[in-house]
Structure formats: structure tokens, C-alpha cells
Specification:
single chain; about 140 residues; mainly alpha; about 0% strand
Length: about 140
């Protein structure tokens, strides 16, 4: 089961990184982020490779944790892979995206427009990750 969890975590990370690239680097979203690149609420990364490596490694750690949790709680899921993926996606949104977004909104100067993008993309990512994990951990 450990190998399955590791494989699911790696697969979910890679697939989300590809999908995440599309949702964050598309011309519309990229243009909005460019408007705020000098905002004090955003960290300036001089090295894109370092930023992408850090983001991937952090995503990998999260996906390992999400895969391990799903493997542990999977017996309580009774639906199809798709239904289980949707349910687990809702759980990930509830424990990751909502608290993070509210915390950032309350405690930071992160621009509200970018918070909205982060929320939408985070929801998409949660469902992508959940679906990959539920497909691979049976």
C-alpha cells in the first residue's frame, strides 16, 4: 500500500502541475497577475526555476499526505471512483482551500482579485488531485 500511496501522490502532483500550469499561466490569468507583480502582498521570485521547483515539491508533499489520508479513510467511501473523487474533492476544498483563503483574506494584503483566482484554481486543483488519488488507490 505504501508504494501505491507514493505512486498516487507523485501522479497527482504531476497531473496537477500540468493542469495548474494551464489555469495559472493562461493569458487571462497571467495578465491579471502581471497587474499585481509589484504589490507588497506578493513575494518576488527572481529565479523562476527555483519558484517552480519549490512549488512542485510543496505540492508533492501535500499529495503524499492527501493520498495517505485517502488510503486510510477509503473504506468509508462506498461510491464509484468518480463519486468518491468528487466527495474527496469537496473534503480537500473544505480543509485546504476555504481555511487558507479566509486566513489570507483576513490577515494579509494579498489582492482580493488574486484571492478569487487562487480560490477558483485551488478548487480545480483539489478536484484534480482527489480524482487522480481515487482512481489510483482502490
Amino acid at each position: 500500500m505504501v508504494i501505491t500511496i507514493l505512486f498516487a501522490g507523485i501522479a497527482a502532483s504531476v497531473i496537477w502541475f500540468i493542469v495548474g500550469g494551464a489555469v495559472y499561466m493562461n493569458p487571462i490569468v497571467a495578465r491579471i497577475y502581471k497587474e499585481y507583480e509589484t504589490s507588497p502582498g506578493l513575494k518576488n521570485w527572481d529565479n523562476t526555476a527555483s519558484y517552480l521547483t519549490t512549488m512542485f515539491l510543496l505540492t508533492l508533499v501535500q499529495c503524499f499526505l492527501f493520498a495517505a489520508v485517502y488510503a486510510y479513510i477509503r473504506p468509508v467511501f462506498g461510491g464509484t471512483v468518480l463519486v468518491n473523487g468528487l466527495i474527496y474533492g469537496v473534503i480537500l476544498v473544505a480543509i485546504k482551500i476555504v481555511p487558507r483563503g479566509l486566513d489570507m483574506w483576513i490577515q494579509t494584503t494579498y489582492p482580493n482579485k488574486l484571492l478569487g483566482i487562487e480560490a477558483i484554481n485551488g478548487i480545480i486543483g483539489s478536484f484534480v488531485i482527489a480524482l487522480v488519488i481515487t482512481i489510483l488507490i482502490k
